Amino acid sequence: MTMPLSLMLRIWRQENRQTKGNFETYPVQGLSPDLSLLEVLDQLNDQLIRRGERPIYFEHDCREGICGSCGFLVNGQAHGSQRATTVCQLYVRQFQNGETVTLEPWRAAAFPLIQDLGVERLAFDQIIAAGGYCSVNTGQAPDGNGMLIGQEQALSAFETAMCIGCGACVASCRNASASLFTAAKLAHLAQLPQGQPERRSRAQAMQAAMEAEGFGSCSSNLECEAVCPKEISANWISWMNGEAH
Which of 18, 38, 209, 223 is deepest in the core (most CB within 10 A)? Predict the structure, then answer.
């Protein structure tokens, strides 16, 4: 029989971006090792609500590492220390009994704070709106064998298309760069036949939008690749730098 665990959650609390924030510490006890970190926050929020206190704000949706909604710093690292993992896939068993776990939001000027652990990632949407799509009329869906695409090409495009837009790459970069996100969105279209007609103009528009939204330049420290829950290679940033020319 597994023994219940206890954690000390040191959480950034800030009501909105105009107010001053600070860390507050909450003991949570009797936790099943199989609980996710978000489920621990759910339990803590139930307690806070019963005490008449404001619950902790954090974003979530699928809780399966697919949607990219959740995301914050866990002990100073985006999504925590577990590689290829979103914060919703962190479990109590990955921490030591009695450990103090520090939770804080992404820190980037382009991601303004909403409240507590949540930030606004509209800047990513603006980059996509600038050209992350195919606007040419492709007609009806072709037969599966009507457009031949090599296996390696298809797999490479799929690997970059796996980007979920969580923002961990931005939060981990000392320049708060969105280069890995933008490169992934460009690469998955540029590797397929449907993406060829607008390939150069798309790259120019999306990179211009990235700069306009206030993201910094690539810091070349590869931390973005290290924290990416889908393990997208930073080599695509080098590839992107040649796409618009």
Answer: 209
